[in-house]
Amino acid sequence: MLIVQKYGGTSVGDIDRIRNVARRCLVAKKAGHDVVVVVSAMSGETNRLLKLTTDISKRPSEREQDVVVSTGEQVTVGLLALAIQEQQGKARSFLGHQVRILTDSAFANARIKSIDDTRLRESLVEGEIAVVAGFQGIDERGNITTLGRGGSDTTAVALAAALKADACEIYTDVDGVYTTDPRICDKARKLDRISYEEMLEMASLGSKVLQIRSVEFAMKYKVPLWVKSSFTDDPGTLVTEEDAKMEEVVVSGIAVTRDESRFVVRNVPDKPGVAATVFGKLAQQGIVVDVIVQTPAHEDGRTDMAFTVGRLDKDKTDELVRKVAGDLGAGKVEHEEDIAKVSIVGVGMRNHAGVASKMFEVLAKENINIRVISTSEIKVSCLIDEKYAELAVRALHKAFGLDKA
Ligand code: ADP
Ligand code: ASP
Ligand code: MG
User: What per-residue confidence (pLDDT) applies to 244?
Assistant: First the structure.
């Protein structure tokens, strides 16, 4: 088999752990498999590097920022290749540009366009373990790019798709995908399997165990994707295609995120093209808008528009929205940070009624006010005050029967 393994920051957090990863790669190699291994930077390193750039410049050029933050992974690929060699294995490290992981030019958030597998294949033919830096690529003009936080997951799945690997194994500090973040709810249970679609929603809604784009790639190219612990030999969770059994479960998981900022633009003129203007401007700057709510027009023909964006984009958004609101002759712009989005996810929701109303009841019973609601076929999300986030997760986890196997 050809296996792509990926080890996250905690798994390569110090020298002993890197040795442990080397041992694990060699176990797979000795079992007769071809092994490509993707690694993240040592835990905390990407944040440290990011801070260096913002210490030197308030608004660092994103191109130069990527040059700096991509170096965390350069250190770990070299160290892991050395650790494998120390254990009598053959290994060669590769940076994104050496493989040629070609991306677009959206610095800090680049998308993979293509992967050249020639050098990796050569390395495998030589009997080496190919050790590839996660999170980084190169654009058409030779600039170094990075794939967004958590992007090593996407490097791994994209490599697995390109190499038509038999499995992609994401090794992390938990032993699989849980019904909710085990750090928030001690009743969280590990799932043996979860569908691509549910995993995609969980990831989009804030479960950071896998980067969203890695799940998109896995779904598109049907990559068998495992989430496992780098510290145990548990089988982990398989992310795979949906089947009838999965549909029997109404709610499979609960996600929560505190990474959003909410904006309200008051007294927007209620006429065609206004929403297109506001959101068009944000889109041009690459700002992803999440929940959008527009209230019906008031008697004076004006309306309020509320939406959320990722907290990282809040300053850019604030500046832009104030300008657009001024141009449109709208009222004041309000902005709040202390919100959380709690979501329930499950493919079983498609054919069950009353799921959303049950969620609202559970929150009401805990006296939690719902600020905004948004739904899709397989999820319901509510924006609430941040201080109630954990309480909401625990109450929903219990009410939807996730506490018990
Ligand atoms: P890595 O550094 O290995 O990429 P991450 O910190 O990115 O690891 O992802 C693993 C973390 O994801 C876990 O420690 C856990 O706190 C968090 N997490 C959030 N939601 C879930 C979930 N539903 N199941 C498992 N882990 C989750
Ligand atoms: N080192 C990068 C980050 O912390 C990528 C990753 O770990 O997946 O976001
Ligand atoms: Mg991660």
Answer: 87
For 333, the 3-state DSSP assignment is strand
Helical (H) or strand (E) element with 307: strand 302-310
Mean pLDDT, residues 192-208 taken together: 94
Q: Give the predicted TM-score (pTM) of the model.
A: 0.92
| Average pLDDT score, the chain | 95
Ligand nearest, relative to CA of residue 66 = 2
- Residue 150 C-alpha to ligand 2 middle, in angstroms? 4
Asked if residue 152 has its Cβ within 6 Å of ligand 2, the reply is yes
pLDDT of residue 259: 86
154 lines ligand 2 (CB under 6 A): no
- Categorise residue 13: left if φ over 0, alpha if ψ from -120 to 50, beta otherwise: alpha
- Which neighbouring-strand residues pair with 374? 381
Measured from the Cα of 179, ligand 1's closest atom is 23
46 pocket-lining for ligand 2 (C-beta < 6 Å): yes
Q: What is the pLDDT of residue 295?
A: 86
Residue-level length of the chain: 405
Does the beta carbon of 25 sit less than 6 angstroms from any atom of ligand 1? no
Cite the DSSP H helix spans in 93-183: 96-99, 118-125, 152-162
Backbone angles phi, psi at 247, to 5 degrees: -70, -20
Find the helix packing angle between 212-221 and 152-162, rounded to 10°: 10
Query: Is the confidence at residue 341, as pLDDT, over 80?
Result: yes
Hey, which of 73, 181, 189, 213 would you mutate to test ligand 1's pocket, going by the most ligand atoms within 8 Å of its Cβ? 181
Q: Where are the beta strands (DSSP E) in 230-296?
A: 237-240, 253-257, 260-269, 289-294
Contact of 108 with 62, CB cutoff 8 Å: yes
Calpha distance 330→380 (Å, rounded): 31
